[in-house]
Amino acid sequence: MTTIRSFNPPIRTLMGPGPSDVHPRILEAMARPTIGHLDPVFVGMMDEMKSLLHYAFRTRNELTLPVSAPGSAGMETCFVNLVEPGDKVIVCQNGVFGGRMKENVERSGATAIMVKDEWGKPVDPNKVAEALAAHPDAKIVAFVQAETSTGALSDAETITRLAHDQGCLVIVDAVTSLGGSPLEVDAWGIDAIYSGSQKCLSCAPGLSPVSFGPRAVEKIKARKTPCQSWFLDLSLVMNYWGGGTKRAYHHTAPINGLYGLHEALVMLQEEGVEHSWKRHTDMHEALKAGFEALGLSFVVPEGSRLPQLNSVTIPQGVDDAAVRGLLLKRYGLEIGAGLGDLAGKIWRVGLMGHGASAKNVVFCLTALEAVLS
Ligand code: PLP
């Protein structure tokens, strides 16, 4: 067998749909000594983590924690705990991730009522209202606030209000929105929400912050059937994340990953979450001006564009893979390809977390112009 040496990844600039570049402060935090996940010092850090997540999500929800797995596990945590066999769930789909919500509903033994919008458009609240009127027995409305596959931002506040008016709970995907776009869990009354560490928090992938409001907790407590997932069953996870002095082993926490998320959230607090939202918007405006100068047009209509995920149509006659390949080879720059129905048709350029910077905007525009000319 040939001798395999240590893995040394190249230095890249990550301007795709995520992961985004991890800030050096976060990488340094993750390299700190591993201690036991029941060590009192670690437990103190967990309490701080909860306060920091409260700050980022703008909530006081007691049931707020980082799931020890990526955003998809945060998604599953919401569905397997809140959806029971026989439930009816209205699922809004305007891209790839709404489709995954449907899968989650059906695998939970429930029926998904689909509200579909064109990819690239936000979820249409009128269609949600119609679905709610047609299905008064629906229990939950699920939607993606920031659809990473297209770059569309949906109106989470309005959809949540419509759902509540009909007595439904909401499950919100905030994987790409947390830290990058306005998000008010308590003020909007969001019942269940999940995010990811690897987008606008500039943290390494693999953790999924989640938060559950009082009505969601009530529904979980009133379940008639046990949650079908052992690992994601919140009633068990809470033995570890529940707080106080009585934390018990549930699974071995990703200790160094949690140091990283803690540091990422400290950095968000230092900057101020509202400032972070504004910085993402300002950098999007700068990138937009450059894209327009290059003749590139946005997929999403103005007013519904995510500042942190800029999708543009690939110009006629341009080889998608060749351009992305050259950007990577010559400049170490990663931009994203289209997903699902949009594969081969669009590029997705991320301005996420500390990657939402003037330096990255200029670098991306310069490299793209050189490769396209
Ligand atoms: N939801 C959205 C909107 C996403 O963008 C992603 C990942 O890109 C996910 C869910 C799944 O997250 P993960 O890849 O961390 O499992």
From TrEMBL:
Amino acids binding substrate: R348
Alphabetized InterPro entries for the sequence: Aminotrans_V_dom, Aminotrans_V_PyrdxlP_BS, PyrdxlP-dep_Trfase, PyrdxlP-dep_Trfase_major, PyrdxlP-dep_Trfase_small, SP_NH2Trfase/AEP_transaminase
In-chain residues carrying the UniProt-annotated modification N6-(pyridoxal phosphate)lysine: K199
GO terms under biological process: glycine biosynthetic process, by transamination of glyoxylate
Residues annotated as domain Aminotransferase class V: 74-338
Family the UniProt entry places it in: Belongs to the class-V pyridoxal-phosphate-dependent aminotransferase family.
Name listed for the protein in its UniProt record: Alanine-glyoxylate transaminase / serine-glyoxylate transaminase / serine-pyruvate transaminase
Organism: Methylomagnum ishizawai
